[in-house]
Amino acid sequence: MSKDITNLIISVSNTMKEFADGSLSHNDAFNGYKKLLKKYNKIANKQKKTGNVNQIEGLCYYGNINNYSLLSGIYNIENDDIYYLAYYGDSDLNSRTMKVIANNTENISDNILLQIPPAGDGTFLHNIFLYPVFAEKSKKIIFASVSSSKFFSEDKFIFLAKLIKNIFSIMLNNTRENKNNYFESISDEVENYLKNNIDDGHSVQATLYVFNMLEKIFNHTGIGSLIEVSDGIFNTIKDNYRHNSKCITLSIRDYIALEKINNNDSLKPGKKKLEFIYKNINIPYHSIKLNISTKDSVRTLWDQILTFENYLSNGDIVK
């Protein structure tokens, strides 16, 4: 799957460059777009079946490096509430961007690029570019990029937004019964695993792996390498657990392994520390083990994960 996405993004980039430098006519560019659209629909269908929607975050990363952006993200707006589905960039900038977007939701129109200029009072110094990728009644999903660069290209932004829009049209439009964001889907996966594996004699051990240095180490290598690294991390974790365990990718940085254990095993030594290596580069990470003994502990689990992530962000955990 990662090779499919990487090859498609290379094709997208080449098409945009050829069109920009005049070596590709408007008609040829349009035909090229239709071909790329067919490829993307095929990949999106595979994504839907396999649940590998974490690759959306990789597209946000691509939006940053390819279009002089400080932040790119996909946001859900519903009943005046806004939250992110995926983003790449500084977390504080993401929070401030969401506040600006929340104050401009009435200006968002389907198939129209919206540019929000810097705030006149100096509270927000960048342009925000928005494009809807899904809309119905009180619900909108938008793709947004933040940039102050004169080299930012609206054409590149819209091109990527339309490709993302086609993923969401398949993920959301085709099956209304499905959950409308992948965090809810992940939560359902965890909850189902707990319900099916916790009983009087067994609990579940959840191990969270956080690779908070991942982007800093690999941000110069391009989206292809970042996606390969993510796939390698997932496979390393999965291969080190028993077949009845479950490994879930929460984001490019975060992974969780769930393992059913006998309650008497909780005193036994844990697994040896895993090593994650990509092209001879050792990838540092933090991990925490959490024992779950009741089937309705999903919310508690997320609270503990969030607390751990906050410790990392604040520097309270350094190694």
In words, what does this structure look like?
The chain is an alpha+beta fold and 319 residues long. The chain has two domains: 2-173, Dynein light chain 2a, cytoplasmic (Beta-Lactamase, 2-Layer Sandwich); 182-314, Alpha-Beta Plaits (2-Layer Sandwich). The protein has nine helices and eleven strands. The strands form three sheets. Strands 2-1-5-4-3 form a five-stranded antiparallel beta sheet. The protein is globular, with a radius of gyration of 21 Å. Residues 47-53 and 174-181 have low confidence and may be disordered.
* Main beta sheet strand tally, sense and closure: 5 strands, antiparallel
What would the average pLDDT be, to the nearest integer? 77
Shape: globular
Percent of residues in β-strands: 15-25%
Structural class: alpha+beta
Low-confidence stretches: 47-53, 174-181
Strand order of the largest sheet: 2-1-5-4-3
The number of distinct helices, counting runs of at least 4 residues, comes to 9
CATH architecture descriptor name of the largest domain? 2-Layer Sandwich
Instruction: Please identify which CATH superfamily of the largest domain we are dealing with.
Output: Dynein light chain 2a, cytoplasmic
Terminus-to-terminus distance: 33 Å
Q: Look up the CATH topology of the largest domain.
A: Beta-Lactamase
Oligomer: single chain
Which CATH first-tier class of the largest domain would you pick? Alpha Beta
Number of strands: 11
User: Could you estimate the helical fraction of the residues in percent?
Assistant: 40-55%
Q: Could you spell the SSE succession in H and E letters?
A: HHHEEHEEEHHEHHEEEEEH
